[in-house]
Amino acid sequence: VNMGVISKAIHYLMAANTPIPGVLNIPGPMGTGGGFLYGVLSAIEEELGLDPEVTLRGLFVAAGVGAICYTRTGPTGEVIGCTGECGVCAAMAAAAVTEMLGGTPEQVEAAASMALQASIGWPCDPLPGGKDMPCMARVLFVATMSIVYAQWAMAGQDPVLPFHEVLDVADNIGRNLSGDLLCTARGG
Fold first, then answer.
1. If pLDDT is split at 50, 70 and 90, which confidence band does 37 have?
2. What are the distances in angstroms from CA 175 to CA 78, 112, 120, 171, 178?
3. CB atoms within 10 A of CB 121
4. Which pLDDT value is given to residue 188?
């Protein structure tokens, strides 16, 4: 059965939380974030028949984006809310997918910028009740949308702000969230 790249990405990202035999789980920047990052890249590799070396290049680009994030903010739920977790992972994945698809460095940055912009201001776990919600809903959104942002960037969409400026905005907004909206003992 040909599941398609989005369906494969969903399958693999769900495996990051619930082990599926034969599906590799890689830990990462938001616990399961690394799992969904690798899941998205694996889905792209398999669907397009890419060489594993291409996926490795994507992982290096993702690591670079993550490193940049740590130079400009504290990309965690405790510091800037879910933007620091889901948003940063989305930027990493969008940049990696763009690299894997043969995008230019400018397109890689545009994809990361647009993916992070989509999650600015997200608080951590604002819903009571657990069952991994809204975390899993957000992970599903950012994992699948990272593919869309990569394609959008490669189609020439202007992200308006360069990635480092989006990080500064995300940091400013996130640090101004109430402690009750962060991943703290008081909140999410």
1. confident
2. 9, 21, 11, 6, 8
3. 16
4. 55
For all residues of the chain together, what is the average pLDDT?
Answer: 85
CA distance readout (Å), 62 to 26, 37, 162, 184? 14, 9, 16, 27
33 confidence band (pLDDT: 50, 70, 90): low
Q: pTM for the complete prediction?
A: 0.88
| Tens of pLDDT, residues 135-165 | 778 888 888 899 999 999 999 999 999 999 9
Alpha-carbon dihedral angle through residues 173, 178, 184, 188, given to the nearest 10 degrees: -90
What is the separation of C-alpha 5 from the centre of its chain, rounded to a whole number of angstroms? 16
**Which residue type is seen at 80?**
I
Integer CA distances (angstroms), 162 to 77, 117, 158, in order:
23, 10, 9
28 DSSP β-pair partners: 31
Token pair listed for 123: 């608080």
